[in-house]
Amino acid sequence: MTFSVPDSLAWTIVLFVVGLGLICVAGDKFVDASVAIARRLKIPQIVVGATIVSLGTTLPEILVSSTAVLGSAHSPEISVGNALGSIICNTALIAGIGQLIRPAKEVKAKSVSWRMIFFVATAALLFLTVLFTPESDFINKEGAAEHAVGTVVRAVGIVLILGFVLYAFLSVKWKDSDGAAEFDETEKLMPAWAAILMLVVSAAGLFVGSNLLVENGQLLAQRMGVSDRVIAVTVIALGTSLPELVTTVTSAIKGQGDVGLGNIIGANLFNMLLVIGIPSTIAGDIVFTAKAQYIDLPLAVLVMVGLIVPMLIRKKGSRVHGAILVLVYLAYCVYSFLAAGA
Q1: Does residue 273 sit within a domain?
Q2: In CATH, what number is assigned to the domain containing residue 27?
Q3: Which of 1-10, 43-52, 223-232, 253-262 is most confident?
Q4: CA atoms within 13 A on the CB side of 166
Q5: 8 Å CB contact between 264 and 87
Q6: Is there a domain that residue 1 lies in?
Q7: Total structural domains within the chain
Q8: How many CA atoms lie within 13 A of 105 on its CB side?
């Protein structure tokens, strides 16, 4: 399925803007529906953000990475780059913007720390998997030969998907560590059927809007003559991460920062567990280039640790912390484009 019009630059730009607008509207409604469900079920906001919201906002990445390794569009660099680039974008840019708007207060150490450990352990599994699998060559979609330092095989992909099941189970089982769900008992709750309907419709809106933006954003980026990996870790990663951006920003503005923070942590985990796990399970294996293995993956872990550890130490966020994260992301984007042109 494609929403692009490659023969018309004007229509490409129009569809790009339409996708952006659809994501903004759907993202706002997705937060409202998720929080309404949390209030009805008395579930802490961070659990909802780290599970339901994260899964919904990660759907674009799952779609893009899965289709990137199938058929004539085979492009493993996009599949891996989208996953790792989205983690870097989520953590450095989106979480950074969230802290700039409204710094996190009273960060729940138990809730955040076990999720960070889960993330680092998953990243270590990926790194070691690639490190101890044979190097190989592959042909990208432009027909050029490229070198892979290793692969994520189907068995590891299945393990990653099972890791997602374990994470969801632990999020529910350990919900008490996320703190009590403090809601205004006098506030009128949205009817359950309306909240569920809004959740489904807004998730569909995020799905369609992200595809509009990514497909047409990729066409615009390709006019610049950059590689699949650079497109994936910048334009596509940013495009598929816009739901997380909208969710984080709207959550911060509405004073529901735990939803935004939980969404970032959960989405980062889902990017490795599902966005890499599903394509590798479908395709049999997906390749890692040297830049993905030794630049993108380590940086993804570094920015995640850089986001969480200062919050655990200070028990809250800060605007300075947010500004540093945003600058790290901008530097990464500049490096990616400059290195591609070298």
Answers
A1: yes
A2: 1.20.1420.30
A3: 223-232
A4: 13
A5: no
A6: no
A7: 1
A8: 5
Considering only CA atoms, which of 103, 58, 122, 67 is closest in space to residue 267? 58
Burial of residue 87 (number of CB atoms within 10 Å: 0-12, 13-18, 19+): buried
Residue 45 confidence (pLDDT)? 61
CA-based nearest residue to 37, from 174, 189, 155: 189
What pLDDT is recorded for position 69? 66
Q: Is there a domain that residue 3 lies in?
A: no
Residue 182: domain span = 9-341
Between 103 and 47, the more confident residue is: 103
DSSP class per residue in 95-159? HHHHHHHS---S--HHHHHHHHHHHHHHHHHHHHHHHTS--EEEE-TTS-EEEESEEEEHHHHHH
DSSP letters of 19-71?
HHHHHHHHHHHHHHHHHHHHHHHT--HHHHIIIIIHHHHHHHHHHHHHHHTSG
Domain-located, residue 72: yes
Amino acid at residue number 295: I
